[in-house]
Amino acid sequence: MEEILRRQIEKIVPLTDDEFQLVLSHFSVGKYKKHQYIVQQENPVPYVHFVVKGLLKSFYIDKSGKSHILQFAMEDWWITDNQGFYNNQNATLNIDCLEDAQTYYITLDNREKLCAELQKMEFFFLQKMTAGNIALQNRILSLMSKNSEERYTQFIQLYPDLIHRIPKTLIASYLGISRETLSRLSH
Amino acid sequence: MEEILRRQIEKIVPLTDDEFQLVLSHFSVGKYKKHQYIVQQENPVPYVHFVVKGLLKSFYIDKSGKSHILQFAMEDWWITDNQGFYNNQNATLNIDCLEDAQTYYITLDNREKLCAELQKMEFFFLQKMTAGNIALQNRILSLMSKNSEERYTQFIQLYPDLIHRIPKTLIASYLGISRETLSRLSH
DNA sequence: GCATTGATGTGATATAGGTCACAAATTTTC
DNA sequence: GAAAATTTGTGACCTATATCACATCAATGC
Predict the structure, then answer these.
(1) Arch. (CATH architecture) of B2-108
(2) Largest CA distance in chain A
(3) In this structure, is the CB of residue A165 within 7 Å of any atom belonging to strand C?
(4) Positive/negative CA dihedral, A95, B154, B181, B137
(5) Which of A115, B8, B43, B157 is the most buried (most CB within 10 A)?
(6) Tens digit of pLDDT for each residue in B89-134?
(7) Over the stretch A21-32, which tens digit does the pLDDT of each residue have?
(8) Is CATH 2.60.120.10 correct for A2-113?
(9) Nucleotide nearest to B146 (CA to C1')
């Protein structure tokens, strides 16, 4: 399992064995059951999680009670409530498990210590954050310029693996359309 | 003008005079006229710009020819086509000036050099990127969970300064609604 | 292995917001 | 400062998507 984390980092910065051990020593391992929450609205957000097994979703519940999925996270993805985690605020999002899951998680303090001890980790996190930004901007443009069908097609292209692991209902919620509309498309 | 850049950085990391001179030496100054493009679709994206004067917008033109505003940038904001800039690709966005503008701009190479020479600048960029991420995620949730009126109200709250500098037509394009609908809202 | 819960499909109907068309007001340009 | 360009408002009409209501089917828990 450690290997997944190591490969993820080494896609961006090479690491010696010792360096990777140092990295690893700043993380903890978490195991979670399907339906289990790892972040809850109104509660603190102590960790970012790197998923090594399973599938999670982060979602926002609006004032009318409707839930909107911000992100899915499967193996090799990072997930947290950014606003809560980085600004030390209570969560506005929820994160729960769609499948039994295992993560390596790290606190903000530990992340900062790690970056101080191993400069290239700061570069790594900057690269990840930058890639995240680009993806988010594309998602915004997609929401603004594409209709439901186009967004669904794009989703299939971008995340072919997810299609088979996630009920359509949730994909609809991620795409910002109703499950009925998606149902009528997908045929 | 330099002072604006310095204050922007010092909101996150303190700088000595020498350090700031080092920072500054990696930037160039650009002056642009209203209507001038500083990034064009299909062209390279050599710089990120820090705006010290004026107002710009970045926008995407979809396949049907409709334009969607991704971002405005006034004094103290950063702007570029991220995908083009960080991945060394051609632009998918356009950026032009809504008012005569002045920026400090930097290449990717120079940014990397600067971070290598002055570690805290990497921390600075990471912080900015993180804040950007949070803002983008909120915008996505806003697009998914709020109707036109709520999004407009939120825009006014978030960017009260911009309301008076930007025609409603463009605000509509930023909010992902038609100008007619916005006109009927604003009352 | 049955019972509960969740997922999916589909009809009928409602509606927010888009589009088109025109006129008036305002701003910009030379 | 007149002409051109841009912005804004508003009516009439259209459409994509939401909502509600069932029915069926599949998955999961004990």
Answers:
(1) Sandwich (2.60)
(2) 54
(3) no
(4) negative
(5) A115
(6) 999 999 999 999 999 999 999 999 999 999 999 999 999 999 999 9
(7) 999 999 999 999
(8) yes
(9) C16
